[in-house]
TrEMBL record:
Gene: adk
Region (NMP): 53-82
Positions bound to AMP: 54, 59, 80-82, 108-111, 115, 156, 167
Ligand binding (ATP): 33-38, 150, 195
Compartments reported by the entry: Cytoplasm
Protein name, UniProt field: Adenylate kinase
GO molecular function, one term: kinase activity
Length: 213
């Protein structure tokens, strides 16, 4: 077996030590079943940056009893969606913490056009720019099979074929404008998310190197 030539560090990715710190502020997107969470964790470890998911941010604020956490809990208790402005504020607070100065990987944010603009504003206020957006893609039939198998193993009766298909449709509708916007900026790297985990990681890093290097 030949050794992979895929870049595996920021230095290798950009080709010079002086550029080592460039590729650090990333967003990852992908439909349910594409392995986004797994790849997010691997990329965060590879580049030495924290993964920031909206789910983790919400849980941390609620558990910590912050004003934003209490506000989010009020909406959730009423069965209402948490307004974008609350989510934006949580992301802003999280990106102000010390551990993200060297970079971050956002997972689950932005989700709509408003949040794209909000993230631009947050990063602008910090005098930062987004370095890249990874979109994991997958054949729809493969996604349906993956999610159905996982639902069966986990005993999730609510994951019916119709419910899974609806979630994938919603993802496609909500994400298309975001990926189009980031593609226009030259930031988007689309990567096939199907295959061995390590192979997909290699594809992501290679795509980022080609797209942004």
């Amino acid at each position: 077996m030949t050794e992979s030539n895929t870049p595996t560090t920021r230095r290798e990715l950009h080709g010079s030590p002086s550029a080592e710190g460039r590729l650090t502020r990333l967003v990852i997107m992908g439909p349910q079943g594409a392995g986004k969470g797994t790849q997010a964790a691997r990329l965060a470890e590879l580049f030495g940056i924290p993964t920031i998911s909206t789910g983790d941010i919400f849980r941390a604020n609620i558990a910590g009893g912050t004003d934003l956490g209490k506000l989010a809990q009020e909406y959730s208790a009423k069965g209402e969606l948490v307004p974008d402005e609350v989510t934006d504020s949580m992301v802003r607070d999280r990106l102000a913490e010390d551990d993200v100065r060297g970079g971050f990987l956002l997972d689950g944010y932005p989700r709509n056009a408003h949040q794209v603009e909000a993230l631009d504003q947050i990063l602008g206020d910090l005098d930062w720019e987004l370095d890249g957006v990874v979109e994991l893609t997958a054949d729809r039939d493969e996604l349906l099979a993956r999610i159905a198998k996982r639902a069966e193993l986990e005993g999730r009766e609510d994951d019916t074929p119709d419910a899974i298909a609806r979630r994938l449709d919603i993802y496609d509708a909500e994400t298309a404008p975001l990926t189009a916007a980031y593609a226009e900026r030259g930031l988007l790297a689309r990567v096939d998310g199907i295959g061995e985990i390590s192979e997909v990681t290699d594809r992501v890093v290679a795509a980022l190197a080609q797209q942004l290097g």
